Amino acid sequence: MKFSNSLIYWYLQNDRDLPWRRTKNPYFIWLSEIMLQQTRVAQGMAYYLKFTDNFPTVFDLAKADESTVLKMWQGLGYYSRARNLHYSAKQIANELNGEFPTTYKEIIKLKGIGDYTASAIASICFNEPTAVVDGNVYRVLSRYFGIKTPINSSAGIKEFKTLAQTLIDEAQPGNHNQAIMDFGALHCKPQNPLCDTCPFADSCVALEKKLIKELPVKEKKIKVRNRYFNFLVIKTDDNKTILTERTGKGIWQGLYQFPLIESHKSINKNELITSEEFIKTFPKETTISLFNKKEIVHKLSHQHLYTQFWVVETKKSSEAKIEWIDIKKYPVPVLIANFLEEYQPKK
């Protein structure tokens, strides 16, 4: 209890004025927690405000089409979060009459919600004493208790969850959970933590044993896969282009892209236009030029995409049905969004 008391005392002096802190509405807490997974508060804030403005209730989000939701999510990445959010909003609106589940066991059944998010919502909105464990919590607990079990191992996940649960203040679990997350984000930071002013300095194992930089421990990362993308940016004489929706379970599901030729290595213009896929797509005369003179490397969690944008000018194409003037209405990966900001097609 002493740990929790010190933590909450720190929190009450240092808590951030964030819009989702001013409510106990589970819909808004849910939105904020999903958005802030893999995303810093500074980046997620604008998206949260935009979402709550456009979708003030779970019914509004449920009624929106997926393409609109993905367009508003554009730039946040990890788009499965948005698809799952939309799916669960429809489930809550249509099957639960708009009533958000009130217990951890029921909340975690919603698509896209795991232990961390269910614990956050249950504790903050419904005062259920279930501990959150995210990257910030792993860091605080591993340093304070000197735990070297890898945080991304099954043993580590179980150990840290059990420990976090023993520490929670059952009288105010929401404050406790928000306190430990904020403490990790603002004070016990990954780099240059504020040990000199830390309320736990006299009992922190990592500080005493000079293990701050070594903790928390992570098992070796999954090997990164290199992929080589060649986007064909079609422009017809009547200012039309081709965008197709990505399907399947890979990256960018539900987002739109230009026709794509994926190669085994970086290729030049001659290798591109003599490829079977290019010839099949453009049997007629075309003018082709490379837009980005230097390959763009777009880094995802387990993939590095080496990307080239090839501008393909052709008189007509029966598949080119999208007006250039409308292209920014479509949800696209940030890689393509950045290209569209730079590329100015000739009139």
From TrEMBL:
Co-factor remark: Binds 1 [4Fe-4S] cluster.
Cofactor(s) the protein requires to work: [4Fe-4S] cluster
Parts of the chain that traverse the membrane: none
Signal peptide: none
InterPro entries per UniProt: A/G_AdeGlyc_MutY, DNA_glycosylase, Endonuclease3_FeS-loop_motif, Endouclease-III_FeS-bd_BS, HhH-GPD_domain, HhH_base_excis_C, HhH_motif, MIG/MutY
SUPFAM superfamilies, A to Z: DNA-glycosylase (SSF48150), Nudix (SSF55811)
Name of a matching Pfam family: EndIII_4Fe-2S
Record's catalysed reaction(s): Hydrolyzes free adenine bases from 7,8-dihydro-8-oxoguanine:adenine mismatched double-stranded DNA, leaving an apurinic site
Record keywords, A-Z: 4Fe-4S, DNA damage, DNA repair, Glycosidase, Hydrolase, Iron, Iron-sulfur, Metal-binding
Annotated EC: 3.2.2.31
Gene3D superfamilies: Helix-hairpin-Helix base-excision DNA repair enzymes (C-terminal), Hypothetical protein, domain 2, Nucleoside Triphosphate Pyrophosphohydrolase
Residue span, HhH-GPD domain: 35-186
PROSITE patterns attached to this UniProt entry: ENDONUCLEASE_III_1
Function of the protein: Adenine glycosylase active on G-A mispairs. MutY also corrects error-prone DNA synthesis past GO lesions which are due to the oxidatively damaged form of guanine: 7,8-dihydro-8-oxoguanine (8-oxo-dGTP).
Family to which the UniProt record says this protein belongs: Belongs to the Nth/MutY family.
Record-given protein name: Adenine DNA glycosylase
Phylogenetic lineage: Bacteria, Pseudomonadati, Bacteroidota, Flavobacteriia, Flavobacteriales
Gene that encodes the chain: mutY
